[in-house]
């Protein structure tokens, strides 16, 4: 391992541990800029020496918490790794929320320390490369908007989608402030979907937030018009006490943070851009610095638009103009781009934003979420939007790999490598060379395979089973799990170094119960899908049926809803679904510590699948194969359905084909 001349600050209140760390790091070639026993002492050293990395204990004897230092380190772009003797789940969750670059459990070996630093360095560099790549693209997009010959109104319309990729917002306001007594012109954008925004003038916005013209004299604090700043959570809430307009706005749209950017224009008044987010930690110095680095370009853009000032349409224009009912339409580009991912809820939009950010890069992505939330669909979208899209995505279900053949499946084997190896086999990683491999249910891999996977991720090379020849590959890795990997690490079932190697760019897919507002769109999508597949007339769904769907907890998430809609269409003889046959036991009806009797009523995924297959078989009088058979309706090859029936114990009496 190559030693790096990097400054490291050790924040540790046990002198023996701190000194041992110092000796190990010095031996490896690192420079130690200081040892701090508390957060306050660490702050002083950081200001004086600006370390490259910080090794940070979580619980310090003076009562301070190492996690309290994390926001300061993030702000200064200093990488940090936690060192702690405490590995319970709550500690790991608390540490994870601060987005460290690693986590070391005391006591640890010198080798573990150096490997973790190496992983952290690579992860940090990957993040920097991704940011630099995105910034370059962002600046080029801005240049295209500036030099385009489109009218000023169209230039303004392009800005919400342009800003969203780097400065996510739920509400954005662009205000052209005129000099003297001239009236300012404002453009207010409300995000309604992916690449979809509603455009309102001040009159329409004030009506929405119940702000009267008589209150306009106490609109906004003049002292902040010419300043660049961001306010998160508590600081943002405090600022609302001085501004009635902003208080009404934040209350109406549940806004919790703000970023303000001021662009001076020589020939007129300044332009002020304000971004608001529902997230309490929506903005950072990194975003503000990016805007400040491109201030001259924005000045050039707004000077051009001021030559022929944009006008918010007072009447509804045609869809070809890009505005309908005051709304900028995406033309369903989001649906096409994220094929099969349906919804507009804030929780889902956050996932779509992350997909768009990471897809063009080669960055490793860890997709987490409960079973049935659509993790594989997220992986497919990332691959489809990547430069590797012309090669097939190689999908590996780690949970389905036989324990004694895991290495052979992943890395291949030579003829005669073991009993039964009658011919040479190319493994999944080699098949994915030049493309993308998706390791689904990565938490199910045995520890022996985790060791070999770690090397592949680090070196991009491996040996087939039974071979001493090293094979080099160029593979992008996506991984997914429904397990809590922090808990798996704390209980010794998953390697800590592998977890941090995988967790470069995490995407957490929300459960359906956290995106209930997407249920009407999902219901419509699934009804269209299944009526077309079954050759049935288009179905509608009643309000009562939708209400029942939105009151259910969805333990099986999207997969469960898909099966339920399909079953409802089969049950329904008309063209409107007026009621939904939901499972009798709901999660929100169970007590905190439910009796074993009630828990036993909850069905497993296999039981739910068997019930669904039987339901379809009955609807088609037991016909499995052929036109209109159960296999066609379920979207499965007949052979696969027969196999599933055998595994699930579904008797052949349903099969009347033969």
From TrEMBL:
GO BP, sorted A to Z: phosphorelay signal transduction system; regulation of DNA-templated transcription
PTM-bearing positions, type 4-aspartylphosphate: 57
Domain Sigma-54 factor interaction: 341-570
GO molecular function list: ATP binding; sequence-specific DNA binding
InterPro entries reported for this sequence: AAA+_ATPase, AAA_lid_NorR, CheY-like_superfamily, Homeodomain-like_sf, HTH_Fis, P-loop_NTPase, Sig_transdc_resp-reg_receiver, Sigma_54_int
Record keywords, A-Z: ATP-binding, DNA-binding, Nucleotide-binding, Phosphoprotein, Transcription, Transcription regulation
A Pfam family assignment: AAA_lid_14
Residue stretches making up the Response regulatory domain: 7-121
Family annotation (SUPFAM superfamilies): CheY-like, Homeodomain-like, P-loop containing nucleoside triphosphate hydrolases
Protein's UniProt name: Response regulator
Higher taxonomy: Bacteria, Pseudomonadati, Bacteroidota, Sphingobacteriia, Sphingobacteriales
């Amino acid at each position: 391992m190559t030693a790096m001349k990097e400054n490291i600050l050790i924040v540790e209140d046990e002198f023996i541990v701190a000194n041992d760390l110092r000796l190990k790091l010095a031996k490896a070639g690192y420079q130690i800029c200081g040892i701090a026993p508390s957060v306050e002492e660490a702050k002083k050293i950081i200001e004086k020496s600006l370390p490259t990395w910080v090794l940070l204990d979580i619980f310090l004897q003076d009562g301070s918490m190492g996690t309290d230092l994390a926001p300061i380190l993030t702000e200064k772009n200093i990488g940090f790794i936690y060192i702690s003797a405490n590995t319970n789940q709550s500690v790991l969750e608390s540490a994870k929320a601060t987005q460290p670059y690693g986590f070391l459990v005391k006591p640890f070996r010198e080798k573990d320390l150096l490997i973790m630093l190496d992983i952290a360095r690579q992860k940090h560099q990957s993040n920097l490369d991704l940011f630099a790549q995105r910034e370059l693209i962002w600046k080029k997009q801005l240049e295209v908007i500036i030099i385009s010959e489109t009218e000023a109104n169209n230039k303004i319309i392009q800005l919400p989608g342009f800003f969203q990729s780097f400065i996510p917002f739920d509400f954005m306001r662009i205000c052209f402030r005129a000099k003297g007594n001239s009236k300012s012109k404002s453009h207010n954008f409300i995000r309604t979907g992916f690449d979809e925004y509603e455009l309102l003038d001040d009159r329409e916005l004030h009506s929405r937030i119940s702000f009267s013209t008589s209150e306009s004299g106490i609109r906004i604090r003049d002292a902040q018009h010419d300043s660049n700043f961001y306010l998160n959570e508590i600081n943002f809430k405090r600022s609302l006490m001085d501004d009635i307009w902003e208080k009404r706005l934040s209350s109406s749209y549940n806004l919790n943070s703000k970023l303000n950017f001021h662009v001076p224009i020589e020939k007129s008044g300044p332009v002020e851009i304000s971004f608001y987010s529902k997230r309490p930690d929506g903005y950072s110095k990194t975003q503000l610095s990016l805007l400040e680095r491109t201030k001259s370009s924005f000045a050039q853009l707004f000077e051009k638009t001021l030559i022929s000032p944009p006008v918010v349409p007072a009447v509804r224009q045609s869809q070809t103009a890009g505005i309908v009912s005051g709304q900028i339409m995406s033309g369903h580009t989001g649906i096409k781009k994220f094929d099969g991912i349906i919804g507009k809820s804030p929780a889902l939009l956050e996932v779509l934003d992350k997909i768009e950010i990471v897809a063009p890069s080669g960055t490793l992505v860890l997709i987490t979420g409960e079973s049935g939330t659509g993790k594989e669909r997220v992986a497919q979208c990332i691959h489809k939007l990547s430069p590797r899209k012309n090669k097939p995505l190689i999908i590996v279900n780690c949970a389905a790999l036989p324990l004694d053949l895991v290495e052979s499946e992943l890395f291949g084997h030579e003829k005669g490598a073991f009993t039964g190896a009658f011919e040479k086999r190319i493994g999944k990683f080699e098949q994915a060379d030049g493309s993308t491999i998706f390791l689904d249910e990565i938490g199910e891999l045995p520890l022996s395979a985790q060791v070999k996977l770690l090397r592949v991720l680090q070196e991009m090379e491996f040996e087939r089973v039974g071979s001493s020849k090293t094979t080099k590959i160029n593979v992008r890795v996506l991984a997914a799990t429904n397990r809590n990997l922090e808990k798996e690490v704390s209980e010794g079932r998953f390697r800590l170094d592998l977890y941090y190697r995988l967790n470069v760019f995490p995407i957490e897919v929300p459960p359906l119960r956290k995106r209930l507002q997407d249920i009407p769109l999902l219901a419509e999508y699934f009804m269209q899908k299944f009526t077309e597949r079954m050759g049935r007339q288009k179905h509608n769904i009643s309000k009562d049926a939708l209400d029942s769907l939105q009151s259910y907890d969805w333990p099986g998430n999207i997969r469960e809803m898909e099966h339920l809609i399909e079953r409802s269409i089969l049950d329904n003889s008309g063209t409107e679904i007026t009621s939904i046959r939901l499972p009798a036991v709901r999660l929100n009806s169970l007590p905190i510590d439910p009796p074993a009797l009630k828990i036993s009523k909850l069905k497993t995924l296999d039981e739910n699948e068997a019930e669904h297959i039987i339901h379809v078989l009955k609807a088609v009088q037991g016909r499995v194969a052929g036109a209109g058979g159960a296999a066609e309706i379920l979207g499965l090859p007949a052979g696969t359905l027969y196999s599933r029936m055998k595994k699930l114990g579904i008797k052949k009496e349903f099969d009347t084909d033969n």
